[in-house]
Every structure is written in C-alpha cells, then in structure tokens.
C-alpha cells in the first residue's frame, strides 16, 4: 500500500467500487492496470505516481494488479498492459494503452483535471498553503525538512504540531508545542492549543449524526448543541460551529459554566483576528452580550 493519501491499491471488486467508482464522483481517478511481469508497467508506475502527487489531491491514482484482480480485468476488457483509464462521475472518460511519455500523460489529463495552484516560493508559506488546503502529509514533509535545518523555528514547530494533531497524534503534538520558545508566535500557539483541545474533546463525544438526530427531536437540547459544535470544530467546520455556539449562548449563557462563551473565544484564537468569521461573530457576540 502506498504511503500517499492519493495513491492506493485495489483489492477486489468492492474495493474498486469504493475507491474508484465512488471517489470518481468527487475527484478524477486514474486507474493503472499492471502486472509484476510487465516491464513497461514498472517503468510507467513511478511517473504516474509523481504526476498524481503534483496535483495534491485533485487527482487520485488506483493500481490494479491484473494477475490478481481477474474479475476487474474481465469487466473492463483489458487486453494489453499497461493500460491506464481515467474515471469521472463513475464512468471511464479517457485513457491509453502501452508506455507513454510524461508529456502525453499530462496532455491527456488537461481537459479533465484542474491544474493545482503553484505553491509559494517560501518553504514555510508553501507548508502553510498545503495545510490550509488539507494536504496534511505534504505540509508535514515540508515542515520536517525545515526543522532539519533549524529545529527551533517556532512557526514551523507550531504548524508541524497542527499536522500531527490532524493525524490523531495528540500527545506528540502537545510535546512539540511545549518545545516552542518565546512569545513571538503567541497567537499561532494559542490557535494550535485550541485545535488540540477540540480534537481531544471530540474523541469522547457521540458522532455528529447522533447529535443531529437528537437536535431534530428537541432543538433546545443544550448538551447536543454544544457537543455538535465541538465535533464540527474538530472537523474544521467553523461556520456551523460558531452559529451553534452563539445560539446556545443566547439561549442559555450559563450552560456548563459559560462553555459556549469560552469556546467562542477559543475559536477566535484559533482562526485569528483577521478571519472574516471572527470579525462577524465577534460583532454578533458583542450584540448578544450588550
């Protein structure tokens, strides 16, 4: 199995349905039909992986070992190797058979896949862009390289901790944050600690679907409202979380010793004063208080 979140091996028809057909309704999926004995397949595969990684999640790559997945081979009538097929919206839309130059593969993809925005030249800014776009693994790799050069870069340490937290490594993330020195990045440090808090809280709460069902039955359920907001914050769904927290504050500002108010302030720290949601909800909170 590939370590990349964008590249995966197919194991059976159920896997193909989920990882290729279902995924293709959201992102184009390139399917590489290959076999161990096929030398051109082995030459093509690293090039396809490289191209896929460059798209940073806008393109996925599925690998089908034709010696094993005979049912899938027969289903799509694969007669020669390598064969590469591009799927969109559940259907094959393009592809090729045989070895191809990298330029030809890129040309084939152009009508179907949006070109990724270029990353910033500054490595730290590039890592931040990757993180904000949800490409956690790539951001983490970039930050590891930066920290190899200087393991006390506060900004890099803080963002690296946030990557770890997103992967569920909460203890390790906290240890990295504790290693940050100085007060220069106080706001970013507060944001990272707030993220850790929300992820820890969410781990012990009911799933969002359960909480939404409770609220559908009783929309004044303060506990369900608060817990749903925490789950949304852990998933970076900030606007619905802020809306729910504000409604709870207006309805019952004393709930759990002012938990809604405290959490709103934590979210403001997390997003930063310049974020448009913070600007809007600070004003709404002020109006609710006064």
From TrEMBL:
Into which family does the record put it?
Belongs to the thioredoxin family.
Keywords recorded for this protein, A-Z: Disulfide bond, Electron transport, Redox-active center, Transport
Q: Which InterPro entries match?
A: Thioredoxin (IPR005746), Thioredoxin-like_sf (IPR036249), Thioredoxin_CS (IPR017937), Thioredoxin_domain (IPR013766), TPR-like_helical_dom_sf (IPR011990)
Annotated Thioredoxin domain residues? 1-114
Spell out the Pfam families in the cross-references. Thioredoxin, TPR_19, TPR_20
**Residues of the signal sequence?**
none
Q: Which domain of life is it from?
A: Bacteria
UniProt-recorded name of the protein: Thioredoxin
